[in-house]
Design goal:
The structure holds two protein chains of two kinds. Chain A is an alpha/beta fold. Chain A has three domains: 113 residues, Fumarate Reductase Iron-sulfur Protein, Chain B, domain 2, CATH 1.10.1060.10; 163 residues, FAD/NAD(P)-binding domain (3-Layer(bba) Sandwich), CATH 3.50.50.60; 151 residues, FAD/NAD(P)-binding domain, CATH 3.50.50.60. Chain A is built from 18 helices and 16 strands. In chain A, the strands form four sheets. Chain A has a five-stranded parallel sheet. Chain A has a five-stranded parallel sheet with strand order 6-14-7-8-9. The mean pLDDT of chain A is 94. Chain B contains nine helices and 17 strands. In chain B, a hairpin with a 4-residue loop joins β1 and β2. Chain B folds into two domains: 88 residues, Elongation Factor Tu (Ef-tu), domain 3 (Beta Barrel); 158 residues, Nucleotide-binding domain of ferredoxin-NADP reductase (FNR) module (Rossmann fold, 3-Layer(aba) Sandwich). Chain B is an alpha/beta fold. The chains are: A alpha/beta, B alpha/beta. Chains A and B meet through β5 and α13 of A and α1, α2, β8, α8 and α9 of B.
Chain lengths: 461, 281
Amino acid sequence: MADMNPKKTPMPEQDPKVRARNFQEVTTGYTAEMAQTEAARCLQCKKPLCVQGCPVNVHIPDFIAKVAAGEFNEAYNVITSTNTLPAVCGRVCPQETQCEARCVRGKKGDPVGIGRLERFVADWHRENSIPETAAIEKNGRRVAVVGSGPAGLACAGDLARAGCDVTVFEAFHAFGGVLVYGIPEFRLPKAVVRNEVTGLMEMGVEFRQDMIIGRTLTVDELFADGYEAVFIGSGAGLPQFMNIEGESYLNVFSANEYLTRINLMKAYLPEYDTPAPVSRVVTVVGGGNVAMDAARSALRMGAEKVFIVYRRSMEELPARAEEVHHAMEEGVVFRLLCNPTRVLGDENGRCCGLECIEMELGEPDASGRRRPIPREGSEFTIDCDTVIMALGTRPNPLLHTTTEGLDADRHGCLITDETTATTRKGVFAGGDAVTGSATVILAMGSGKKAAASILEYLKNK
Amino acid sequence: MFTICEKRRLNSTVTLMEIEAPVVAKKAKAGQFIILRTDEYGERIPFTIAGTDPEAGTVTIIYQTVGRTTMQLDTMEPGDALQDFSGPLGKPTELEGIRRAVVVGGGVGCAIAMPVAKALYDMGAKVDIIAGFRSRDIIILEEEMRGMCDNYYIMTDDGSAGEKGVTTDKLKALLDAGEQYDMVIAIGPVIMMKFVVETARPYGVPTMVSLNPIMIDGTGMCGCCRVTVGGKMQFACVDGPDFNGYEVDFDELMKRNGSYKAQEAEAKQHICRLTGGVRHG
């Protein structure tokens, strides 16, 4: 009989006042007892709706049953039969719109804490299990994976398990893509990412950093070098600006730059050389997870006050509910229904404020969300010394502009069919490079799908 | 890791380094750059490729010690290895169709101008070089550059070598004398490039400049290197580094390049006083 407590087992977390000034992980994770208590809330539905809500169809009731029984290693095996990166997904997936949104328990009270349980299982496995060294039978096929983000890691993992010789090419000096340059340490510890990469290395996947495919080597050169198929998981790294007056003032950053300085270059640690942006009052423009990450990073870098400016209302805010909740707890101030009109600068060209205009919501637009309309004459100024633009990103054009026959749409997204095959023979693609900025789990799911398609392609080749 | 195989002082603050990076050496073209990190704690810093030897698998960079990272780099010797060395980045300089060019190099900018001049000269163009320095003692690459042009002019602020004056004085004199150039290529301090453009403008000679904004990734990801060209935002790392000089907002670039001056000065002091340039034990 399931535990009928309507509330989720609370997640232990650092006190908001304390954590807003440090980079340690905000939530500290369930203990085994908490996990078993929460697992007991699962009704073990015969037709589990939660599984349909998961982009990679994790067998959720099965793994939760194993957790309830204290069989954590078995639970891990159930999850990883369809999800390559559970420690990551358990932390960063928008569960409230996916698995947990469908949970029957959510109709009266809280849904089962599926994300928290997934994270617990992955963390338990990382700390307690002995890495398996099952010998993989090699098939002698060589595949190149471009990009070491969630799509690339998932694809490389499945290909390696199937016996392929896989090389992952990464443009940066560190592996993990957006997991290391974008998502901050306090939300996704880099040790978790490193662990996933190390696991693949132990499986025989070769990782090469500082390799910018399209520049250092082209896709054609990869084929000439003997790779039989190429997977492109190069993400969506190109930042967007608003094209308003004053965006070139000093201390106006793309969220990519701000977060890259802090996360990838570790500017928050004194022993690293990359200068950290120093700010007193920060305004972040945008309402997605990246905006929340930038705002919360700004607090941790010492800002006295941090605003989020978003042109729609709380209801339309695209960020994960947990991130919004955490940001508010930490003291981030939300200025909703307003939009920047220009950045103000002082005589030295340094940002000193952001002029905004109030918005109201009109009829729904193409995205189905109500269109924000400016209220004439309602301009006001937020005094701030830093502005961070978190307006979404687009794929980098480097690959399709340097690869003959590889087509992209007008947004720069690579064109693929339902098998993830691109317009160029032997080249497959997935993740944000195809969809534009989306989620880790979707990227991972498409990486796995591409791996299956590549295996099929190699078999028929 | 990328081993340093040669290090040679060109003047008191400018140094040439050859680094083993076979893949980059094979691919690099004039005008492109690399990004390096000295060690695990280092910044990602861009350097224009000053030359390559594809057979030996080496890439040459020329740097001036100005801040923390270049001072750190300067403590490294042949046999030491750099943590990262990635490239070639940026678009190669477009030289097609140029038959007669004047290349204007300012100070250490001559190191960046050199591969462009060489590429032009090698493809049979007639090349004049105007190289500007503060004084005789900091002249670099004179011999090398003389070997890749038809006319080589040195300008010094104090007249201690070549003619007394700045590069734009010479450029104006040449243009006034009726020299017909297909292209002026200016590489050096932002202020010099700005004035080269203003000098060339009345004569209507197309002028190309190579920009050097602050960068992190060098692949189009951070937007830190954004510059305004023709009223539009461009990223120097992927849309450049070369741009039509007539369209560049140089004043904005100068301000943006000063972003980290205070921190840079502090870091420099820090490194000198405490570690003499060697850190982390």
